[in-house]
From TrEMBL:
Coiled coil: none
Alphabetical list of PANTHER family matching this protein: ACID PHOSPHATASE RELATED, PURPLE ACID PHOSPHATASE
Superkingdom of this protein's organism: Eukaryota
Enzyme Commission designation: 3.1.3.2
Record-given protein name: Purple acid phosphatase
Boundaries of every Purple acid phosphatase C-terminal domain copy: 353-413
Length: 430
């Protein structure tokens, strides 16, 4: 059945590639920014009601459930494979943080499992009977679909993007930084958590930090990423990292390895992140792991006038590591537009280099980055300043389909797509 499905995906792609190229050549009028939305606590909620629920992967068969309550409540998750019937209960921990005059709610962190792949689980947080959630675990083999969004924010365009994501039936979401755009005003973190909860509680969201997560105020709040680290704990320790700002994880039974890097922590050759990355990539066996992906926030390749050169120092430090490991794709955010590059290395086309994709256009309040360098560099194959999201559908160990879905008057339009072949399957790059 899986083989039949893979063949259907490949046939479908071959039919729509031409249509996609025609659409992309049609003149398109870019949309204006939309106002920030605020999502209040539900009217029927009380201090014990779970809110801002989101899940993330922990190892091959476990899931972290994170939520917030205004008052003290048990850090327990009841779960099972039937609605209302919870055969298992796991217990975790509770934390909180203060930021200037703001005090967070109780942040609950519970790891549940072991779980079976491709299975729907129903769960409730803190044994609270008022709200039941459900999620589906990712498959243990191909095919599988990854959703990719950057610079999400919480605006009218964010709502449009989330609507499209909800209809995509993805398995795991990847977000290369800039989540809430709280920018020091901590209640916006709570609003963001409530905004994304319908999706983030149903599929694992794997995120890394952006510049809008730094939130450092000299003397008053000297510690960077305080809210981000408290609210969006990722499985860094499982991958041997000492920091929530960079980590890795496996998908599809280890056939896909994803590296999440930190653009705003040290990355030079003497740094902890660099040394961790060397060790992490050395463990990847490309015979067992045909797909290798990386995410950063500030793009290493960028032909937009915005944020020119801001990822250059990190590129100089780490590009050799990714190139030698034969990373297939590098996703980035930061620039509020979409751009897809050829396979590149050291600023030149290279058939054994990664495809670099900038997708910092989830729906941020700052609007789109509309001005590009002219002429367009030869290594830049498609670029457009529009809001949208991406889908990376891994068909098998050799082929994957990438598609970028533009938010076109609230309807998603596939404006760019390509069939990629894994570098591990190409003898010239082995």
């Amino acid at each position: 059945m899986a083989t039949h499905h893979c063949l259907l995906l490949l046939l479908q792609l071959s039919l729509v590639l031409l249509l996609g190229s025609i659409r992309s050549s049609v003149s398109y009028q870019r949309p204006p920014a939309r106002e920030t939305v605020s999502v209040p606590l539900a009217e029927d909620a009380d201090g014990l009601t779970p809110q801002q629920v989101h899940i993330s992967l922990v190892g091959p068969d476990k899931m972290r459930v994170t939520w917030i309550t205004d008052d003290d409540a048990p850090s327990t998750v009841d779960y099972g494979t039937s609605s209302g019937a919870y055969s298992h209960t796991d217990t975790g921990s509770t934390s909180s943080y203060s930021y200037v005059f703001y005090d967070s709610g109780r942040i609950h962190d519970v790891v549940i499992g072991p779980l079976n792949p491709s299975t729907v689980y129903y769960y409730r947080c803190g044994s609270n009977p008022t709200r039941e959630f459900s999620f589906k675990t990712p498959p243990a083999q191909f095919p599988m679909k990854l959703a990719v969004i950057g610079d999400l924010g919480q605006t009218g365009w964010t709502n449009s993007t989330l609507k499209h994501l909800g209809a995509s039936d993805y398995d795991v979401l990847l977000l290369p930084g800039d989540l809430s755009y709280a920018d020091f005003y901590q209640p916006l973190w709570d609003s963001f958590g409530r905004l994304v909860e319908p999706l983030a509680s149903a599929r694992p969201w794997m995120v890394t930090q952006g510049n809008h997560e730094i939130e450092k105020i000299p003397v008053i709040e000297p510690r960077s990423f305080k809210a981000y680290n408290a609210r969006w704990r990722m499985p860094y320790d499982v991958s041997g990292s000492d920091s929530n700002l960079y980590y890795s994880f496996d998908l599809a039974g280890g056939a896909v390895h994803v590296v999440m890097l930190g653009s705003y922590t040290d990355f030079d050759s003497g740094s902890a992140q660099y040394k961790w990355l060397v060790g992490d990539l050395a463990k990847v066996d490309r015979k067992k792991t045909p797909w290798l992906l990386a995410l950063v926030h500030a793009p290493w390749y960028n032909s937009n006038e915005d944020h020119q050169g801001e990822g250059e120092e990190m590129r100089k430090s780490m590009e050799d590591l990714l190139y030698k490991a034969r990373v297939d794709v590098v996703f980035a955010g930061h620039v509020h537009a979409y751009e897809r590059f050829d396979r590149v290395y050291n600023n030149k086309k290279d058939g054994c280099g990664p495809v670099h994709i900038t997708i910092g256009d989830g729906g941020n309040r700052e609007g789109l980055a509309t001005d590009y360098l002219d002429p367009q560099p030869e290594i830049s194959l498609f670029r457009e300043a529009s809001f949208g999201h991406g889908q990376f559908s891994v068909v098998n160990g050799t082929h994957a389909q990438w598609s970028w879905h533009r938010n076109d008057d609230d309807e998603q339009v596939v404006a760019d797509q390509i069939l990629l072949t894994s570098l591990a399957s190409q003898s010239a790059c082995s």
